[in-house]
């Protein structure tokens, strides 16, 4: 015992005291911390039997499908907040029934579909979370974020096929704002209610905030190009407004490809070259989970049940998304809701519901790094993968989808990214920062509510609504 104590150096403890409150003792700071985390992780996997090594947090102890257990586990969901959302399930058949029986009740159909999307998205997010629990940490976070984005991708594709370009553009930026300000603010607030200054690791925040800034600047390039040349088209330079629009579309397609490449490099960075650091951070986060013992003890879905839940939720999401998008022109014309408010606020809130619930629950359970990974990862995926894929899909279909946003929208995005980046810089948060993020989001929502519908979007809504009636 004397030899063991002699080997221990007071230097790490002294360094820890000098770091101040911006660091958490549970986070890995040295190579030995990472090595210990890997050793523990390996030891846990050795206890399992069978050809597929599943993390203890995702082991169900069953195989195949058991209907009663399936519905029981789905109903319980991951948290009290998610379970409360399941109360909205009756709105799903109601929305589908009203769509076909009362096709002229546009406000009612839209309202029911909007509420129905929340439990369906929650099921999709829960199935993705159950599947991610069976995987290594970094792969699980990526899979969970990608599955939760299926709602967003389906909505974008349906809007694209309907020609709702303005709503798509607003929804892209609105999705970034909702996750980056509202969801992150709620996570900071929830974590701050249990700790004076919750801390998180720079591996999550620094890389994430840097990528967000790059993505925001990339999305802004076509808008800046179009706005700069629009006012002088046909005047001081030999170019028409139509040519400016065509060049802006081409620039948007090139930017979309570049953003997808950048996202691929980000995934490679996380999954291959630096995965050990991320795995160690998440393993330390898992150890300080307040409900960790409950997660290990509770019943879990089997792999087959996860796939079935995903199939059901994707099918329902598609049906509800088509219904929701179909009613947007009528709501804009007769419901008193502007296109900017619809795209920037209403659509993103419902498409991101599942991710928000998951992240808030993780922050409340003292897993702030997981919460940040979901918030920042989801935002990056929207800006650098989902949005570019919509432009590329429009390119393939011969549709003029581009990144020519409203100045109002793109300026808000850049300012929000800079604001959030400042909050992430010191690797700690508190409930005040969370509240400030929420207040900023509400202020943007108020501005979007009073922002008038552009004439192009209004004429498209009039054509869609009038053409079908």
From TrEMBL:
InterPro entries assigned: CaH_exchang (IPR004713), CAX-like (IPR004798), NaCa_Exmemb (IPR004837), NCX_ion-bd_dom_sf (IPR044880)
Per UniProt, subcellular location reads as: Endomembrane system; Vacuole membrane
Keywords, sorted A to Z: Antiport, Calcium, Calcium transport, Ion transport, Membrane, Transmembrane, Transmembrane helix, Transport, Vacuole
Which residues does the annotated region (Disordered) include?
1-60
Any one Gene Ontology cellular component term annotated for this protein: fungal-type vacuole membrane
Q: Where is the composition biased (Basic residues)?
A: 38-52
Q: Where is the Sodium/calcium exchanger membrane region domain?
A: 107-271, 308-449
Q: Basic and acidic residues compositional bias: what residue ranges?
A: 1-14
Any one GO molecular function term = calcium:proton antiporter activity
Which chain regions cross the lipid bilayer? 108-127, 139-161, 167-191, 203-225, 251-269, 306-325, 371-395, 407-424, 431-451
Question: What topology in the membrane does the UniProt record assign?
Answer: Multi-pass membrane protein
Any one Gene Ontology BP term? intracellular calcium ion homeostasis
Q: Does the keyword Lipid metabolism apply?
A: no
State if Ion transport is listed as a keyword: yes
Q: What is its main location?
A: membrane
NCBIfam families recorded for this chain?
A: cax
Recorded family membership = Belongs to the Ca(2+):cation antiporter (CaCA) (TC 2.A.19) family.
Q: What is this protein called?
A: Vacuolar calcium ion transporter
Organism expressing this protein natively:
Microdochium bolleyi
